[in-house]
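Field reference: sequence -> structure
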Amino acid sequence: MSSRRTSEEPARGLTTLTRKQQEFALHWTDVIRKSNAEMAYQFVSRVPLALKLMSTDGTREWLLSAMDIYDKEGLYPGSAALGNIEQFATAYRVSHLAVTLDQVRNVLETIVCGLAGRNLKLEPGNSIYTDTETLYLPPAIHRYDDREKNYRLYKVTAVHLWAQTWFGTFRRSRPDSPHLSEIIAGFDDPGRALKLFNLVETIRLNACIHRELPGLGREMLALQAAAPRHDATWNRIIECLEHPDATVHQSLEATRTLYGLALPWPDPFVYQGGFNLDAAELTIEQRGKREKLALQGELNDLIDSILDKNAPDEPFSPEPGRLDLSQDESGNTQLTLDGEALSLPPELEHILSSMHQDLGQIPEDWLVPGGDGEYARPGKDDNTAENVWKGAYHEKGACLYDEWDFRRQTYRKNWCVLRELPAHPSYDDFAEKTLERYRHLVGEIRKHFEALRGEDKTLKAQPGGDDIDLDALVTAYADAQTGVEMTDRVYARKHKQERDLAVVFMVDVSGSTKGWINDAERESLVLLCQALEILGDQYAIYGFSGMTRNRCEVYKIKTFQESYDPEVQARISGLRPQDYTRMGVVIRHLTHILNQVEARTRILVTLSDGKPDDYDGYRGDYGIEDTRQALLEARHTGIHPFCITIDTEAGDYLPHMYGYASFVMVDNVHKLPLKVADIYRRLTT
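Structure field:
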């Protein structure tokens, strides 16, 4: 390096180490120099002290933590992290008892998503709070000398923050009521008032969790310190807060009543977080604006569809009528138009549910038509997925995913930025021409798949049925001859097997598919959709490509919610080669989508012409190992990955990525449309 004239000093430091430690230090120096030579120099200069204070495992974690900071923030913060050896070593000594957010994030996200309400993200933070879209939790917890207990603390802390969003901590009584921050600011000592409000609101939320989630409630009690005795005022207020009808307004009244009294205990709840009222209220306000426009647009579409259905030949001229909204005892939303109940589409149900969380009740003027009698629609601005790419990639619509660095044996956090883009349709006769070209094959496919759909299984040794099970009858007769009571399970009956499958097809549309390969892929999708429509399996199709880690793209060809119609055919026809083949991030994204679908069996099928590749270094072993790690993550969630490739050299890397039984090579691109439907049939039976 030009800034270092000699490596004598770090070399002398290495001479004090054992041979094994020297090999460890030199190996990681070689790994890190490929990212940054200065970071490698800093590491090799400080590794003797690190190894003196920690084991090689601890030293490796110290290095990877610093490299993670380097990846996110740059050289100087990364170098500073390498300099904090003593501080890191102190934390590492208790790390065998600590639980980190990275270790439990997937489990906690599954728990939180399984609860009612909107999906919430989990992020590390300097304090514990929620802005109603993200739960900010400690990066690590090591309060107890027991890893299991530390994990339970993480879990109940996340659930308690979720409870704030679900049970109305930030909800105002009316749209024109003051915000919670304004009410707290009205006290002489807002800091004391907020602390007191947090205490009484925690008591109310505890009661809500105990009623609706008794199992989690018991875990909270196990972590809760014994509460001191209360005076009559506190007892009366606690009884009020624990009543099933109590709301945040009872917590505010309790705060006013108790404001002049001493707190009976400082911090009784170890899982109790704090508040960032400005962040929560800003998030709710921005979401309310978006959802109001979205609600009115959905209502307008709903009314249009009703009018079109009732009078398809008449223009949309009448007033939409009066809309009323109510909820039954189970919390289900009921929307009526002039007194007639309407069936709500899923997107509208989601918007209404989110609004109820924030507002409790939706203002009537949000359901009443505007000045000209039509509902307002969200404007089509420049904030489309394509245009947002021109700005910062962290804007609306971007998904961040980790990427596996096999050299470091760890993930690069939030390394890849992915967006879902609409597939550009091409309204031509491609689908019809494909069906005509392969008409001899279409009939055969239909015959095979109809047989699969109607496949019956014979159940033997049944107490009743359509036929005699001779094997069971012979066994029963033999039993009777030896004095054993003869069983009545001597019948056989047919049972139709129900297919419970969900499949995502991940189609490579990188630049290398240009020409015959792209044509064959599109023809394969047309034939495959014909077959899948016969079976009735749930399926979705996404194309993928991109350029560097900052611009990974998937193209929505057919989602699980969509039916196979001329629009989907046009999207298939419009598929064209794009850029590069960064596969790991796409597999992680489609795994997330597939795991949202209710099905007994989930399959991820990749249709590709080659190995992972991107021009920013995502190639060779790096790309293969990241893709393999993403596939292992998918398998861990219960998904079965499979690959169909036309790369004749795929035998060199696909067994390592997918496993020997989880891929097939088609040696001639022209045979691809003939093979895909048959491969799917064999894969799912």
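Note: Confidence is low (pLDDT under 50) at residues 312-320, 369-395.
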